[in-house]
Structures are given as structure tokens and as C-alpha cells.
Amino acid sequence: MAMDRSYLEYSQRSYGMDHDRYDWSMLSDRKPVTWPDGKTLALWVNVNLQFYPLNQQGKPFKVPGGMTMPYPDLRHFSLRDYGNRVGLFRILGALDRFGVKPTLTVNSRLLERTPYLAGLIRERGDEVLGHGSHMDALHYGGQDREQEHQEIASSLESLRQATAQDVKGWLSPVRSESENTPDLLAANGIEYFCDWVNDDMPYEFRTANGSLTAMPLPLEIEDRFVIMNNLHSEVSWAEQVLDSADLLEAEAARQGGRILSLNIHPWLLGQPHRIKHLEGVLENLSARPGVWCASADEIRQCWLSQQA
Amino acid sequence: MKEDPGFYDYWPYRDRPKITWPGGARLAFWVAPNIEFYELNPPDNPHRKPWPQANPAVTGYSIRDFGNRVGHVRQMEVLDRYNIRGSISLSTALCDHHPEIIEMCKERNWEFFSHGIYNTRYTYGLSSEQEKAIIRDGMESIYKHTGQKCAGYLAPALSHSEETIDLFAEVGTELFGDEGGIYTCDLFHDDQPTPIHTRSGKRFVSIPYSLEMNDTIAYVVQKIEPRRYGQQLKDCFDRLYEEGATSGTVMCIPTHNYQVSCAHRLKAFEEALEYITGHSDVWVTTGREIAEYYRDNYYDEAVQHIEQRGAA
After folding, report:
1. Is B165 inside a domain boundary?
2. CB of B192 closer than 8 Å to CB of B249
3. Would you kindly state where each structural domain of chain A is located, as residue ranges?
């Protein structure tokens, strides 16, 4: 018994990362960043507007949160649709009440199906990020490059038309990527994306078509991760968010501005038994004097302006 | 394949010879931060897939990178606050990739022990010579970069062969005599150190690594809430501290800088450390120090007692 000799070879074993997408850099070594008006914690609430098709193909895997039962899985289809019909309005109401500006991550297919939501977004003017066509349109390792390019281009074209925005930001469905995704995003006018969860601050991410800004949108504090994956209560989600805010504010006092970014789903937190816990979080955070409510790109522009 | 790995004999917890830790302490407490490097494009191993999906495993890879970019310093600052020296379970390639982290830990006189080269290279399907080469590489890397004679081993990603512990003990002796390769963290059969049989007959011990207190077990396997994890740590301590009055016990908190240091989790860990270190008669120490103290003061008595028990 033995492995091939290559199993004991380590071609990338040298200083820095084992790839060339970004530089190795410890957060504590970086130049401190300041936010407008002396604020210390930028609050970015990212609301996901998603479409989970009933005829899910599940290629190359069934998207978490998608259909799980034999066709037609009416249960999951309609529970997800609930978010766009009902939950979204509870969430927008809560955000507006506490003066917290949302950033919206939107599947293009959803707006093709619901002109009403497209109109609402145009009217509100909230910043929109691309999120692929729908939740079953996954990027994945080994995906055909040309096919992926077409999918990104057509979904962005549709979303830009529906929202009348440039759409410069991106979040891949469940953050799944192929080896080409960042290159293709940059080739299609995307300037920042939020798939990688390796930092609590923005950083420069290299692609074959120029750099993207990698924006921090932690996965493990998402409502979906905490409530659906970990099966924690909504009470605990709120507690974890506020613990996070406390730590980041304390760190900001010593090391410069920090970002609390919350990725949330109307089909989950928009349920009647959960909404008050989101409201409690927003009430708490919006009352903190050091909190700056901003969209993803506002935070990014402020950060970029301080990178020499 | 064997029915039992044969590393230790059955030895009931009650009525053992009494252990007293230095200064009359009844509990030896250590924190073992795993500082790991996972490869973005690791080679395939037919026995275990490094990532659940085709490369790139964006979230799996990047959260582990978060641990090194962001989490390490956060955790280190908390350990500094409570005067705890970490005993690092190290992916030894990290010495090459991220020497800044190694330097910070050296400055604090933390212990480095081997956790393999990368946490994406497994101890499966290897020849004996190949496994030995990997173990030797890890121990030599630690010596080269830190000057420490590696005392302990936690196999990479808890992947083992039947020979892992024997090979580690033997390579330790070849490189460093009795100063290297003296303890394992891979066995979870006890709350006290125990003698381990190795084929070289070396005086070799198992040090409790408290796997159930591991943040990854808590957060990824059990998926528990941060505050409940903090409470489990306190409850574990309370019990072992109480029992330590009869005979000294060991508690470890094995951590990962990509779990415990996430902004929503660090507070629970810090509160537990404050609670534990606020007690008297707790020996706050390292894996190596526990192993050496036990080997030098209790090993022979334990071996004798186990033999008598077996004969009775």
C-alpha cells in the first residue's frame, strides 16, 4: 500500500496563499479605516429576494433551502414564495421604521416574473446586487466556461433593465463558484462580490479581467445558517448578532472602522413569529451612536477612498 | 484490522493512585488552538474527500482562511488577557505560508505540536515509509522554524493508520531523544493522562484533549449556540475541578481560529476562560508540560497499578 509520490509533494508550500487571487494579509496589520462622521461600525443589511423554481434540476447539487421532496414540492416552493409576497413587506417595514437602509440581492428571474417588485425597487432606489438568475442556477467547479458566461451576462442584463441600475455587486447563489466565476463577473461589469468569507473587511481580489473588491458578508451569522442550518432559535440569532456588534465596536475603537453585515431572507425572518426579533436587533443597532447605516457600495466607496 | 488498537489497558477511573499537579493544583487546564492550513486545490485521496464539492470550495476554504487573517489575533488577545499560553496544534506548512503567526506565538512562548503538514493531506493509503516521512517533515519544520522539539501529535484531520502513534514516538526519539514525541492527543478514552503502549517501549503518554469541548464539535457537529458552548465549558470545568480533589484531572479546550473567533462567538469563550482562570488550584499550562510532569512523576506508578489491576 502506498500513495502516488505526488501526495507527498507540496508545490504551493511557500510564503502567502496557495493561489494568486489575493494577497495574504492579517486584519490587525492593516491601516485603520474611518467611516463618515466619526462612526465606527458600518451596518449593511442585505436582504435576499430569491426565486426557487419548482422544476429544480439540482445540478450539481440540490441548493440548500430549495426543493427536497418529490415533484411537485409545493411545500418548499410556496414557503419560499411567501418571502416575496408577505415576508418582504414586514422586513422593509421594520427597516424603514428604524431608518436602516437595505441592500437587495435579487434573482433576475424573480423580477421577470413579478413586475410589481421591479417597480417597487425602482421606486425605493435601494442598491441591488446580482444574485444569478434563480436559486437553481448554480456556479460550480468544472462548469462549462461559455455556459457560465452566458448565464451571468443574461441575468445581469435582465436585472439591470428591470431595476434601471448599473448593478455592480454580486452574490452567487449559496456562494457557490466555478474556478472562473470571479473572472467572468469582472468581465460583465461587476466591481465587488461577497462570496468569500475570509475577512471582516473589504480586500482586493484579482481576476483575469481586473480586480474586484471582496466585500465581507459573513455566512455563519446569516439567519439561514443560524436558524435553518444550526436550528437555533430566533432569540439566539438576535443575541448572536448583538454579541457580534459588541465585539466589532470594541475592535473598531482600537483598530479602525468595522462592518456588521447581516444577510437575511424574507422567507425566514419575515415570518410572523420571527419578525419581532429582527425588529429588536434593528432597534438596538440603530440606537447606537457609532453605527453608520449604509449600502454595500457606500461602504465600499468609503473604504476604497482610503486605500493608497 | 484489529478489534482494539491495543494502545492502553482497561483501567477504571476510581481508586487510581492520586495525582497532584504542581503547586497542589487539582486540575491541569490547557488551551489547544488548532492553527491550520487547508489547500484550495488539494490532491485527491481515495479514502476521504478534502472538500464536499468540486474545487473551488469557496466557503469551506475561505472561512478557514478567515481564521488566520482575522481570527488568530482575536483569540490570541483573549488568551493573553487570561495569561494562557496556547499549545498549538499546527499544520506545519503554516510556518512557510504565514510566518507572522508563528512569530507572534514564539514571542509568547507558546508550545507548537504537530498536526501534520496540511489539514487536507490525510494519513490514509500511505506506506509506512510515506507516513513516517510526513511525520518527520512536520517535526523538522517545527524545529527549524521555532527551535522547539515537538512533543505532541494530533494527526491531520484526525486521520490515522494503525502505526501513526508508533511512528510518531519513534521519529521523536530519532530526532530528539526523550525530549521529542512523548504524547498523543488522538485518544479520547480518559480525563487523566494515561501511559500508552508503543512498539518501541518508550515512556509515552496520552494527554486528554477533551474532544467534546472542541469548538468545531460544538459548532459544526452539535451545532449549538455560542452561549451554550460557553456554559458547557464551565460545566465541564466544574465537574473535573470537583473530581480533581480526589486525583488531578485534565481539561483542554481545543479551538479553531475560524470557529471560536467569529465575532458572534468569542464572548462565550472569553467568559468561560474568565470563569476557569478565576479559580484557585488550577494549573494553567501546556500539553508538553502536562506530559512531562506526568511522565516524570506518575508514569511508573500508573504502569505498576495497571498491571496489578489486570492481575487482580
Report:
1. yes
2. yes
3. 34-304
The CATH number of the domain where B235 resides is what?
A: 3.20.20.370
Model confidence pLDDT, tens digit, residues B85-140: 999 999 999 999 999 999 999 999 999 999 999 999 999 999 999 999 999 999 99
Q: Return phi, psi of residue B230, to 5°.
A: -60, -40
DSSP one-letter string for B96-164: HH-HHHHHHHHHTT-EEEE--S-TTS-SSS--HHHHHHHHHHHHHHHHHHH-----EE--GGG---TTH
Give A-chain residues touching B96 at CB under 8 angstroms. 13-15
Distance from CA of A178 to the nearest CA of B (A): 6
Pairing outcome for strands A169-170 and B282-284: unpaired
User: Does residue B36 contact residue B91 with C-beta atoms inside 8 Å?
Assistant: yes
Q: Which residues of A touch B43 (CB under 8 A)?
A: 6-7
The CATH H-level superfamily of A34-304 is: Glycoside hydrolase/deacetylase (3.20.20.370)
- Write the DSSP string, B7-37: SS----STTPPPP-BGGGBSEEEEEEEEE--
Query: What nine digits make up the cell of B61?
Result: 476554504
pLDDT means per 10 residues in chain B (312 residues)?
95 96 98 98 96 96 98 98 98 98 98 98 98 98 98 98 98 98 98 98 97 97 98 98 98 98 98 98 98 98 94 66
Q: Answer yes or no: are the C-beta atoms of A258 and A27 closer than 8 Å.
A: no
Query: Which residue among A25, A28, A221 places its CB closest to the CB of B264?
Result: A221
Give the Cα separation of B215 and B260 in Å (integer): 6
Q: Measured between CB atoms, does A15 come within 8 Å of chain B?
A: yes
Tell me the count of A-B CB pairs closer than 8 A.
149
Count: domains in chain B = 1
Nearest to B97 among A2, A8, A15 (CB): A15
- What ipTM was estimated for this complex? 0.97
Torsion of CA A74, A77, A79, A84, to 10 degrees: -140
By the CB < 8 Å criterion, does A144 face chain B?
no
CB B97 to CB A177 under 8 A?
no
Compute the distance between CA of residue A185 and CA of residue B175 in angstroms, rounded to an integer. 51
